Amino acid sequence: MDYIRDCGLLVEEHLKLIFRNDSEINEVLKQSMEYSVQAGGKRLRPVLLLSACEAVGGEFGSALSAACAVEMIHTYSLIHDDLPAMDNDDYRRGKLTNHKVYGEAMAILAGDGLLTHAFYMLSRCADDVSPEIVCKLIAEMSYYAGPYGMVGGQAFDMQGDQSPNATLEQLEQIHRHKTGDLIVFALRAGGRIGGADELQLEALKKYGYDIGLAFQIQDDILDITGDESKLGKKTLSDEKLQKLTYPHLLGLEASKEKVKALTESGKKALLEARIPKPERLLDIADYLVYREF
Amino acid sequence: MDYIRDCGLLVEEHLKLIFRNDSEINEVLKQSMEYSVQAGGKRLRPVLLLSACEAVGGEFGSALSAACAVEMIHTYSLIHDDLPAMDNDDYRRGKLTNHKVYGEAMAILAGDGLLTHAFYMLSRCADDVSPEIVCKLIAEMSYYAGPYGMVGGQAFDMQGDQSPNATLEQLEQIHRHKTGDLIVFALRAGGRIGGADELQLEALKKYGYDIGLAFQIQDDILDITGDESKLGKKTLSDEKLQKLTYPHLLGLEASKEKVKALTESGKKALLEARIPKPERLLDIADYLVYREF
């Protein structure tokens, strides 16, 4: 989809400027952070943030700092997830993981640095929106990305991994927090910056959890049926790591049906809340179902 | 000093409430975060924050959320510093380090969780001060604790450690960022919450860097001359790790002199800026020179 690619490239251009030509910062730390920030990926979260801002009638440009912030949070979480003590991955998106290039200590610091600086980037929204809104953005980012959100999801994941008889409910709890929460933050942040009312923010949240779960189930499906060259990573990794997945619990066909049902439910939420320009968010939902990587 | 102890205990009472009786959060993650938050210590940073707020004429109570936030940042940094890939410490303050109790993966997550939730706590200052001030607090915490501040200092430290011919300037750069920056943030945050003007904020910064460096040199001195039972950790650890220290570069006596000179210079900055109630900050500066742990 051209829109997602173009929007992602715009975010990448902005991400490149964050630590550029800055002699105040430790050079190796900077390189290590930039290595992972610039390692590509779909830029799904910032694209959703910018699209939500536009969908409610806001200005694209006023949401760029927040878009960078959410991608920095996502990137830090990948760096820490890949560490030997966590998932112990050597490759990510076809490139060596951060700790394989810079060592474990620098990878931990690069993650800490990106996480902390994401809040700096978010505080810079104060140039475009009121300080009241910035305070709400800060509270929501720390809530959805922290112990009650994404970090909590990672903790549930670690424990769920080890349990051979985990339930569908437990799996949904893991994904709701690990993947859904940051996507929901991105959408609500974009919505808030664009001037969304409470009803619209709730619809963006419903849409976010639905497509977030659909996205995760699709990831599980692609890990079985996908093309390694398109994915940029090895397939069947979940089975190798004995990770609990949707296809494992529901079967492949029922998992594909669930992806479609969630996508429709998310789209419906946007339409019911009368979001003025929902087209791009609707397209992104469809794209996520039909993607091959 | 009774004031530091009482003030530290008050902060501890508030820290205990943060994740209490909360079923939304992963139980092991919560235990792991609380284990380190409640592991004692001098609570120097929150005590400085509260004291700075009072020193400029502010209300003690309005700064408690920020005081918890800065202690959570400090605690996360200790958890990550102690990891096997970093300093590889088994004990801290006489207790097992976080990863020795909860494992490396959970320790990484506990650090990430505390760092993220610190921003949530700081955003809660909005109950007591204006949203404009909260935005400035957020920007400063991310600046002083992030890649330009404490995380950067840790990166410089890692590289400095490995260099046998590092200079005094390099060592001061490490400590300025690794220890000084978070202390300066604490003081400026307390000052801001208490209504300090720019001149007073600058004086708090000067005081902070001076006593921060004095504190660090005193740590280096105590690592050589201190009493293990009072310190709660083994002495001569710097030598064992071949860490560059002030006593190593300047000698023990000159290091002691430098601690005293920095302390006086910091106190003078407060007096020159006509901070209305500087007494406690002056006492804390003296306490730091004469402490035995």
TrEMBL record, chains A, B:
- Name the coenzymes or cofactors required: Mg(2+)
- Which molecular-function annotations from GO does this UniProt entry contain? transferase activity
Q: Which Pfam families match?
A: polyprenyl_synt
Q: Does the keyword Amino-acid biosynthesis apply?
A: no
Keyword Cell cycle in the entry? The reply is no
Question: InterPro entries, per this entry?
Answer: Isoprenoid_synthase_dom_sf (IPR008949), Polyprenyl_synt (IPR000092), Polyprenyl_synt_CS (IPR033749), Prenyl_diphosphate_synthase (IPR053378)
Q: Which UniProt keywords apply?
A: Isoprene biosynthesis, Magnesium, Metal-binding, Transferase
State the EC number(s). Answer: 2.5.1.-
Renumbered to this chain, the signal peptide range is: none
Residues crossing the lipid bilayer are: none
User: What family name appears in the similarity comment?
Assistant: Belongs to the FPP/GGPP synthase family.
The record ties this protein, via NCBIfam families, to:
FPPsyn (NF045485)
Put simply, this protein is called Polyprenyl synthetase family protein
Q: What is the lineage of its organism?
A: Bacteria, Bacillati, Bacillota, Bacilli, Bacillales
